[in-house]
Amino acid sequence: MILFVFEGERREPMLFRSIEHLFFPSSDENIVCSFGNNIYELYRQMHSLGEGADIAGVLKENGAILGDYDMSDFSDVFLFFDLDIHNENQPPEVSISQIYEMLSYFDNETETGKLFINYPMIESIYHTGTLPDKDYWHYSVSISDCSNYKQIARDFPPYSNLDHLCVTERNMNREDIVKRIRMNWIHLVGMNIQKANFLCMGKHENPDKKEDISQPNIFSSQVHDYLTAHYRVSVLNAFPLFLYDYFKPEVFLSNDI
Length: 257
Fold this sequence. Notes:
Layout: E1 2-6, H1 11-23, E2 30-34, H2 39-49, H3 55-61, E3 76-82, H4 92-105, E4 107-108, E5 113-118, E6 140-142, H5 149-154, H6 175-201, H7 215-227, E7 232-234, H8 238-246
Parallel strand pairs: 1-2, 1-3, 3-5
Antiparallel strand pairs: 4-5, 6-7
């Protein structure tokens, strides 16, 4: 059984349920919950408990609905949170230092959990032209604009909603629509992994191996090439990067992206 932990309560679980329908075997049992706060607060609470901190216990203490499940029920834990570099309560350099710590702490899905970061936030899922978007690897946003990024991303043409990525009760029996949605996700994976590979390895192409675009490598490249160099964030979404990391790479690699 796998535990998926999201920052938000609506958009992330909705997107994941579509991913689950499209890519996960029907025999898999996945538990989804929302923390309802940012990754800095989750890390603070986990870190304060010391070695052997129980993420399921921390989630329950914060109101997450997990029923009778505890850590012994989960083989893997994956976390999806926003960068939140524009946090008004602390300067960017403090956030950067903390994220380095968190990526080291949340680095193993079978222990404390494995963290995937949205740059700058989950709304990056909107921030693309018509799929597949060959210009995606250029997109970035200034740190000063991150406070308004939800609107910036939603106003980016042509996707003002998530119908192109969501399998719902209305369309799940329409084979043509589901096939198109699945292909849109495959395009997103290709676009994000090639962009991540450009960030980390300087090559706008598919990675040679998954480790080249690990979460720590991506963040380090963001820091050196965008955050501190230009006070910008290179747009990436955690869900496509997770799909590439979790499944066999050949499922998503295509020369047409």
